[in-house]
């Protein structure tokens, strides 16, 4: 197969590209990425010269470029991850989220529709999020039938893109599959998201900003598990279906942060000033903060035989070790635009 991965220089994308390039030497992987603040070619340094890999810098909203790439590379499947992905940034500035997540998905669908006709078929795998379902109370979990109720500009833009993908299947007969996954963690995640941000700040003895009361719940999935789930759906998912992907691993934010502090103390030793838990600082809540997410992943298990392999405590330990061993990767993220974002987001929360 010739695969086009969009957003392959981001967190999940780079883990997925590495996985596909290494485990499928007979397949070709073309990675198209705009290289926004979240895209980083350092994350792919170890596969950049693989014979079955090509990187193209490009914007997914450029329908002419997307159409050209699909034809030039005889693409059999698009695995679409490119997106603006951070909720807090969507609150500070939603426009880019609509442009990339909605119009970018639309452009890719148009390119696919133009290319895959006259008997030639290709598959469009759309990588989405559990956030489209909104917020849960104390019980229950999102199934594929849960009604959409997005609460942030980010999740609204992802919901819009999910609907477009569905419509292109229903109306034009495009072979689409959609995945809705819970919170990922692991190597190469940009340090704006909870886990890498806390590792970075704990390493530097800086405050660990926990939003609100810290009791919001997320379901955490190790990124390698997500990559394997995407590959499974790509190969065997049924056209027009959606699949929920989750780790069956719900945690309160405060429990994640305290576990991280303890593991950092274990890895680096307790500082003279005291255990790293002392750095935990409650700050003003994220506006519209979803309380709880949980995934019922029984459909993908039942139909496709996928299950997560990684245990959270082990995954967390490995993630911390990776960040401690890759200081240069982390530091390259910390440019002026990062500091500006940090001040804007957290300055408002003091
Ligand atoms: P990320 O922010 O780390 O990476 C996004 C990538 O997309 C970056 O490399 C960026 O340069 C690229 N990109 C952005 N705009 C682009 C454009 N206009 N054209 C081309 N490339 C562009 O995101 P991530 O966390 O790896 O998430 C990847 C996908 O998975 C997203 O669609 C996200 O909604 C979804 N998802 C993420 C999670 C999670 O926990 N991170 C969970 C479920 C679903
Ligand atoms: O559920 C899937 C989604 O998970 C993906 O679609 C998104 O792309 C991804 O960013 C993630 O969204 P969240 O908003 O859940 O992730 P984030 O890491 O930003 O926050 C996780 C939780 O931690 C959330 O309840 C907010 C809280 N938090 C986050 C940050 C950055 C804090 O308390 N302090 C922080 O500094």
SSE diagram, text form:
Layout: E1 2-6, H1 11-23, E2 28-33, E3 53-57, H2 63-72, E4 77-80, H3 87-92, H4 95-115, E5 123-129, H5 153-172, E6 175-181, E7 183-185, H6 194-203, E8 208-211, E9 217-222, H7 223-236, E10 242-245, E11 250-252, H8 253-268, E12 280-283, H9 298-304, H10 312-325, H11 327-333, H12 336-347
Helix pairs in contact: 1-7, 2-4, 4-5, 6-8, 8-10
This protein binds nicotinamide-adenine-dinucleotide and 2'deoxy-thymidine-5'-diphospho-alpha-D-glucose.
Unreliable residue stretches: none
Largest sheet: 7 strands, parallel
CATH architecture of the domain at 2-185 and 222-248 and 292-311 and 337-349: 3-Layer(aba) Sandwich
In the CATH hierarchy, what is the class of the domain at 2-185 and 222-248 and 292-311 and 337-349? Alpha Beta
Walk me through this protein's architecture.
With 350 residues, this protein is of the alpha/beta class. It has a domain at 2-185 and 222-248 and 292-311 and 337-349: Rossmann fold. 43% of the residues lie in helices and 17% in strands. The chain is built from twelve helices and twelve strands. The strands form three sheets. A seven-stranded parallel beta sheet has the order 3-2-1-4-5-6-10, with helices on both faces. The longest helix is centred in the first third of the chain and has 21 residues, at 95-115. The protein starts with a strand and ends with a helix. The model has no long low-confidence stretch (mean pLDDT 97). Nicotinamide-adenine-dinucleotide binds at residues 6-7, 9-13, 33-36, 38-39, 59-61, 81-85, 100, 104, 127, 129, 158, 181, 183-184, 190.
